[in-house]
Specification:
The complex is a heterodimer of chains A (about 200) and B (about 525). By secondary structure, chain A is of the alpha+beta class. In chain A, strands 1, 2, 3, 4, 5, 6 and 7 form a 7-stranded mixed sheet that branches. Chain B has about 525 residues and is an alpha+beta fold. Among the domains of chain B are: about 80 residues, Alpha-Beta Plaits, CATH 3.30.70.330; about 170 residues, Nuclear Transport Factor 2, Chain: A, CATH 3.10.450.50. In chain B, the strands form 3 sheets. In chain B, strands 7, 8, 9, 10, 11, 12 and 13 form a 7-stranded mixed sheet that branches. The longest helix of chain B is centred in the N-terminal third of the chain and has 23 residues. The N terminus of chain B is likely disordered. Chains A and B meet through helix 2, strand 2, helix 3, strand 4 and helix 4 of A and helix 2, strand 7, helix 14, strand 10 and strand 11 of B.
Amino acid sequence: MRKCRSHWSQGDRERHQRRSYYYEGPHTSHSSCGGRTREEVVTPPLPEHAAVGSPMAMSVDFKTYVDQACRAAEEFVNIYYETMDKRRRALTRLYLDKATLIWNGNAVSGLDALNNFFDTLPSSEFQVNMLDCQPVHEQATQSQTTVLVVTSGTVKFDGNKQHYFNQNFLLTAQSTPNNTVWKIASDCFRFQDWSSS
Amino acid sequence: MSLPSGHTMGHTDQVAQRRARCSDIYQRRLSSRSEKVNPGIHSSSHQQQDGEAAMHGAHMDSSVRYTPYAISPYNRKGSFRKQDQTHVNMEREQKPPQRRMEGNMPDGTLGSWFKITVPFGIKYNEKWLLNLIRNECSVPFIPVEFHYENMHASFFVENASIAYALKNVSGKIWDEDNEKISIFVNPAGIPHFAQKELKSEKVEKIKLAMNQQCDVSQEALDIQRLPFYPDMMTRDTKMASNPGKCMAASLHVHEENIPMVMSAVGMDKWKGTEPGEKCADRSPVCTTFSDNSSNINSILELFPKLLCLDGQQSPRPTLCGTEAHKTLPTCKGSFFGSEMLKNLVLQFLQQYYLIYDSGDRQGLLSAYHDEACFSLSIPFNPEDSAPSSLCKYFKDSRNIKILKDPYLKGELLRHTKRDIVDSLSALPKTQHDLSSFLVDMWCQTEWMLCFSVNGVFKEVEGQSQGSVLAFTRTFIATPGSSSSLCIVNDKLFVWDTSHQGTQSALFTLVPTAFSSVPAFSQEQQKMLPS
């Protein structure tokens, strides 16, 4: 029986995170591509929208979305940077088809362009030092559950000096009865010292 | 026993199938144990992490050895190593590397061997698997020395274009459990035929083809030698002294698209030779050529997506294709979706910071949605022991990478405009430099605009007065009343550039978002209502 998420112990959380990271469960009926790969950000199914109206209901909603956002963000960041560093060719699996990236002012739009782009980037070593996230208000997303994820740290691209970077993502949720799969709708990356590089 | 993919089975069928498969797998493992082969070039660290030890030096069974570059056991005289070196010297004197590599394939293509590996292929029946691959593969191929190796199934093909076609099959075939089947392709040494009685007609044909490439100067080999595949690693002494340089760059492995992987074998693979284990056994692509450049050129012709070898990123325009040299894209200034949005955003920022810097931030209430969110962070630097100008932001900093307290996680995310503005009002007073602003408009839909502002500001009071800090602030805003923007999400990240030495850069004359917009002077700002 599923416990309310806020009552999960640390152990529960860890076990659950492991499960969703290396998901080997039964295939969902509409999954057309066989088994799940590791390049997916998966969290438990999203909660039903509680009845709006009372301030209490609103705050319960909000807290749940904040928790959900944090979970998605933590999971996502682990997978994203590891994939970027070690399995670069799988990176675009984390993006929506029409996703866009602004990379130090260079706009890249759509999976094909993203594939080319990540292909041309030298190999990388990312170190994330800061991570924060916020659930995006539904008014901005027309009820498409979205999380703003912000990261910062250092990156060393092969053949280049190390840079501090800031990165922003908008992650959108694709819900199935069994889980939620998060993908990048938009991505914005900048070196902190972009102007001197 | 094999079913076309996509065929659904009842549960009991599935169980029976699984049991039958397990027993097959057990059989294959038993037989493979007595015939260990050395894998080809090792794949990247990605596979190492999977714990797929099969892809790396298998335990050598002393009875059968896979020694593609060695003289066959029947002709071995004395120690292998010594012999190999003699062999090597012989080649060098007699044939220049270039010719040897190109070979004399009947159809003129580059002749070289490739090892095709299906991860976890031990699950599959050989015939079933090969048929499946054949159905999908755009060219016919002759699989040579099909075998199971720990958990995987492998075979060899003798042509780069065939190998390439097989690579393209990866991810396009499915097994009975609807799992995608991947195919890995790696350059390899000559499969060791001498150890195995292969009587099939196909193999005879291959041998015939191989004979045609016979280098008449070679002798003492059972198998007619094929051109060596150009190497990616140098041998022995070079490795020992320069382990870093001698590794080919480990590349991105993608399960669906075949990685054209030039292996990054860990140094530990070179150390600790087991007694009796021959050097060549572990590195079937050891070079015999001292000149690496022509090797690299050929490799890149075949595998244009490769990075530069030997971990070098320096351009070799005469040798490498442009794909081999990867540089970072040029960093550019602000990115706006359109001129109209640019003006909208710049106006918004002007107004926002006018109020923000005015000394009274309550005026910002009208800028936020009722249920907006705000949080701020500063970098987490465990080495920072000295008190910094960021200390005033410390208590509000939300960094969920290190913050695990669920209560604080909730508290530090400010919710509702009232809470947000109160929280902003408690932050130090500032003076933002609009001329330093750089804006990335990175998401826009009909319902929202998402943009990030980068710039610097000064602290105008308190102990840190005069210190300059840098910030990135991400706003998500919806269309507000009277063509203004209504903030629903606000995320501020502040850092100190003095450690990075980038402070001066931000004040140099770099084209910024506001360069075409006149900034408000101090006097003008004071005159505006708060």
